[in-house]
Amino acid sequence: MISMNQEESRIFLNSACPDGGLLQSEPWRFFQEKEGLRTYHFESEALWANVLEHSLPLVGRYWYIPRGPVLKSVLSPHAQSYWQEVVSEARTLGVPWIRVEPRDEEVLQALKKWSAPYSLLPARHDMQPREIAVLDITPPETELLSAMKPKTRYHIGLAEKRGVLVTCERSEEVFEDFVRLTEETARRNNITPHTREHYRNFRKFFPSETLECFVARHNGAVIAAILVSFFGKTATYLHGASSTQERNTMASFLLQWEAIREAKRRGCADYDFGGIDTKGIRPSLSGVTRFKRGFGKNVKIISFPGSFDIPLSQSRYMLYNWISMSRNSVKNATMFLTK
């Protein structure tokens, strides 16, 4: 394995990942290890891949490379040969399939070619959003504000007028408030949140240099909060939660704006709002998409091909698909019967 020194690696990773490289960063890999996953790291002068090993009942483990592998160039013969080494290593370890997330169509086609004789198939579901909204925050604050949609700018000012105060805090008490608000938000939106320990682990394992909790208070009570990471030149909005009461304070708008201001102070060039849906595939994201795109004409949409699997064991991969289809059938039938 040909390795780069730490500074070369950092520059390579940041320049190669359009989303800032957080999910392929070493801090993220170490965080996943603390969460209990086994991880692997592959690195050459042309390819970088941090691998998370997930386990499923009956079918066992599989490899997941979030937003990767990262390629310096699809034309590099070194990238091709090294990727084949990664596939060979997975095969040797008895991994039934590898899940990848190509940066773009060019990388997708390269991986299809390089993974032969194994196929590269669309995964049953995407692990990461196919679209993200990224704001260029290099202009002055006055320009960023003027570029916002009027409604967004108005709501930021309204939150301030109504007495919402935003601070960066990392106390245990604040993270417990965040966990409480996350569960409240999940109930309101009928979704399943991560475990409580998952959110607490952000405080335990990420230093303030790479992650902050932005808290909105009204009349002394915590009514909303967001977690934002700082990696390279990109700040990334990871998680958010809010109280069902006092939503008319518009605290969520002020939270994002203060996070953007902090990202500028830290020298970031981009603010990644995370997943959106501009194609109408997921109607539940329509409100979230409008909210995020309201932060300005400088918000660009970055699209990804999606998640793809490379089956190394046809029998175990077929078993996984059969189990997934059976679970979906039961879920759909249950939803129909309870309507």
Write up what this structure looks like.
The protein is an alpha+beta fold and 339 residues long. Helix content is 41%, strand content 25%. The chain has 11 helices and 14 strands. It has helices spanning 6-16, 26-34, 77-92, 105-114, 141-147, 150-161, 172-189, 196-205, 251-265, 286-293, 314-337; strands spanning 38-43, 47-56, 60-65, 70-71, 97-100, 121-122, 131-136, 165-169, 211-218, 221-231, 234-242, 270-275, 299-303, 308-311. It is globular, with a radius of gyration of 21 Å.
Any descriptors?
7-stranded mixed β-sheet, alpha+beta, 339 residues, 14 strands, Aminopeptidase, single chain, 11 helices, 2 domains, disordered C terminus
SSE map:
Blueprint: H1 6-16, H2 26-34, E1 38-43, E2 47-56, E3 60-65, E4 70-71, H3 77-92, E5 97-100, H4 105-114, E6 121-122, E7 131-136, H5 141-147, H6 150-161, E8 165-169, H7 172-189, H8 196-205, E9 211-218, E10 221-231, E11 234-242, H9 251-265, E12 270-275, H10 286-293, E13 299-303, E14 308-311, H11 314-337
Parallel strand pairs: 3-5, 11-12
Antiparallel strand pairs: 1-2, 2-3, 2-4, 5-14, 6-14, 7-12, 7-13, 8-9, 9-10, 10-11
Helix pairs in contact: 6-9, 7-8
